[in-house]
């Protein structure tokens, strides 16, 4: 091999070395360290639980009809679609008796990506947590926003809503579900059971967007659709087969959450099953697990 070729090869190896190490670096540590958005055109990259966000923008800490909570987390960043949605829904909420607007929990980190703590999703700037606590004031200071807690709308036995639940909660959830930019909403099962009971039969088209999930009694979770024209954003397929057939989910799959889910039926002891393959936790993702474009988002100044 001629000398220049060898030197060329070594140079190539050296040049590629840093990106190899980035590829194996823990994604949540890298994304968790970013304090500002990336200077790109806004784009959701990858999927809700495995991706990042380019050009995310900060939700103003206080707006006319909202406040962002837990500012120390710096998770009030989202795709512009998410910011616009929060403006719309909070303006609606402000028209509800007892509600000044909305308290907004986590959206995403400044560049999205996996987090050091908390959520598996919220990675691409399109997931928004909204507190169940009706805002009495939109003048909370930073420390109040760290210390105030939301309220649970679920009973102790986890089977029904409690006295904190109001018709205004129902109206806000319905409004959110009818918003064309919303893909689905996650709520504790008793909330959906209550909505199934109270919504008029002729007015339930929005109900299929309301999905029961564990937790979600202190906040509800809004998941927006991939923005129009946003290639590289992975649309989530229906998670409940029945729902994809046009049902509204007010059925046995819903009752399961307040029966067998809480009290698994006893079965005869069987020979130990093979351990289920470990589900990969977004906390362990390395950069190579995320779409390639996330390295560009991360590397930008
Ligand atoms: Zn959430």
Summarize the structure in words.
The structure is a single chain. The chain is of the alpha+beta class and 301 residues long. It has one domain (43-263, 284-299): Muramoyl-pentapeptide Carboxypeptidase, domain 2 (2-Layer Sandwich), CATH 3.30.1380.10. Helix content is 29%, strand content 14%. The chain is built from 9 helices and 11 strands. The strands form 4 sheets. It has a 4-stranded mixed β-sheet. A 3-stranded mixed β-sheet has the order 4-5-7, with helices on one face. A two-stranded antiparallel sheet has the order 1-2. Helix 6 links the parallel strand 9 (182-187) and strand 10 (210-212). The longest helix is centred in the N-terminal third of the chain and has 22 residues, at 3-24. The radius of gyration is 22 Å and the shape is globular. The two termini are 40 Å apart. The model is unreliable at 4-18 (pLDDT under 50). Residues 119, 122, 127, 129, 221 line the site of zinc ion.
Quick description:
The protein has 301 residues and is α+β, with helices and mostly antiparallel strands. The protein has 9 helices and 11 strands. The longest helix has 22 residues, at 3-24.
């Amino acid at each position: 091999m001629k000398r220049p070729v060898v030197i060329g090869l070594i140079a190539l190896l050296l040049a590629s070395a840093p990106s190899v190490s980035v590829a194996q670096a823990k994604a949540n540590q890298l994304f968790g360290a970013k304090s500002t958005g990336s200077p790109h055109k806004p784009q959701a990259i990858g999927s809700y639980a495995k991706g990042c966000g380019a050009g995310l923008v900060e939700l103003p800490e206080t707006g006319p009809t909202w406040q962002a909570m837990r500012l120390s987390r710096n998770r009030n960043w989202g795709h512009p679609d998410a910011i616009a949605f929060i403006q719309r829904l909070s303006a609606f909420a402000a028209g509800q008796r007892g509600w000044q607007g909305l308290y907004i929990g986590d959206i995403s980190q400044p560049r999205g990506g996996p987090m050091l703590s908390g959520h598996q999703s919220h990675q691409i700037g399109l997931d928004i947590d909204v507190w169940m606590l009706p805002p009495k004031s939109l003048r909370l200071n930073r420390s109040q926003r760290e210390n105030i807690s939301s309220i649970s709308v679920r009973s102790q036995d986890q089977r029904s809503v409690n006295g904190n639940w109001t018709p205004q909660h129902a109206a806000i959830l319905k409004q959110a579900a009818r918003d064309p930019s919303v893909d689905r909403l996650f709520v504790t099962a008793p909330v959906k059971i209550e909505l199934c009971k109270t919504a008029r039969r002729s007015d339930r088209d929005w109900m299929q967007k309301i999905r029961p999930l564990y937790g979600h009694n202190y906040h509800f979770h809004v998941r927006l659709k991939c923005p129009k024209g946003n290639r590289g954003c992975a649309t989530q397929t229906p998670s409940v087969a029945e729902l994809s057939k046009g049902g509204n989910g007010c059925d046995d799959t819903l009752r399961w959450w307040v029966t067998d889910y809480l009290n698994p039926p006893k079965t005869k002891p069987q020979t130990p099953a093979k351990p289920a393959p470990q589900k990969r936790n977004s906390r362990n993702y390395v950069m190579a697990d995320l779409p390639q474009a996330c390295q560009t988002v991360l590397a930008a100044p």
